[in-house]
Amino acid sequence: MSFENPEKNRLRDIIAKKSLLTSGNFTLASGHKSNTFFDMKKTMLDPEGATLLTDTLWKEIKNHKLDCIGGLEMGAVPIVSQLSLRSYPEKPIPSFFVRKKAKGHGTDQKVDGYLREGNTAIVFEDVTTTGGSALQAVEAVRKNGAFVEIVITVVDRLAGAEHTLSAEGLTLISLFTKNDFDLGTN
Q: Which residue, among 67, 183, 175, has the nearest Cα to 121 in the 3D structure?
């Protein structure tokens, strides 16, 4: 598969080389088993991968009306941090992240960073399978009185996330799907 955008082609190649694991027996966040796994931290923490991912995501969101960006720990933390940094000074967009559970000390908040009541947010995921993790973040955003209609994922495994999220009034935007990678029979 080839995209018209050479940067997106290069990003896909980096993901395939650094983040796609094709031999193993992996348990996904959804609880599903798979012999393929996208370890997106390897791309998000690589200088070239992070730059290409951030620039690709920036082009995707910069014209949306939004106040902040965020997602569920840990997968979304590098994405939203780098994207928030990239947004300055053109259109500064602060970020937040949602903990899987309150930390039990300090402010004991489930949401850290810049999410305020009345904000419009976009939620990010590194990889979606059924959409459950993204939905946890969306529910926390909504519980804090903010609005979210868009979830953006780097890779959608095409295992129900779009359906799950659309049932909650959300649009899923995927930079890539599993079909953009040569997975053989996996």
A: 67
Q: Which residues, listed in sequence order, are joined to residue 122 by a DSSP beta bridge?
A: 69, 150
What is the pLDDT confidence band of residue 117, given thresholds at 50, 70 and 90? very high
Extended strands (E) in the chain: 20-21, 26-27, 33-34, 37-38, 68-72, 95-98, 111-113, 120-128, 147-156, 171-177
Largest Cα separation within the chain, whole Å, is 49
Tens-digit pLDDT profile for residues 4-42: 889 999 999 999 999 999 988 898 888 888 899 999 999
Is the separation of the CB atoms in 123 and 134 below 8 Å?
Answer: yes
Show me where the domains of the chain are located: 6-180
In percent, the amount of the chain with pLDDT more than 70 equals 94
Q: 21 has which bridge partners?
A: 37
| Residues 6+ positions from 47 with CB-CB distance below 8 Å | none
CATH classification number, 6-180, choose in 1.10.3720.10, 3.30.750.24, 3.40.50.2020, 3.40.190.10:
3.40.50.2020
Q: What is the distance in angstroms between the CA of the first residue and the CA of the last residue of the chain?
A: 17
CA 4 to chain CA centroid, Å, is 22
pTM: 0.92
